[in-house]
Design goal:
The chain is an alpha+beta fold. It is built from one helix and three strands, in the order βαββ. It has one domain. It has a three-stranded antiparallel β-sheet with strand order 1-3-2, covered by helices on one side. The radius of gyration is 13 Å and the shape is elongated.
Length: about 60
């Protein structure tokens, strides 16, 4: 599953909470690792509120 987080990197935990909620609702377990890729960061945007981070994580059936 992929989530596109908009905002400062330090706030990505909000998106991870969404992954956890989804897993709980659908009786799934989060995989041990995730992958993050900065799509828009300080190189192209001065305001951290406009950063975009793609977060990917796998789920496993319980």
């Amino acid at each position: 599953m992929v989530i596109y987080h908009k905002g400062a990197y330090i706030e990505t935990y909000h998106s991870y909470n969404l992954f956890a909620e989804y897993a709980k609702i659908h009786n799934l377990k989060l995989h041990d690792y995730s992958y993050e890729e900065s799509l828009i960061d300080e190189v192209s945007e001065a305001n951290p509120d406009n950063y975009i981070t793609q977060i990917s994580i796998m789920f496993e059936k319980i």
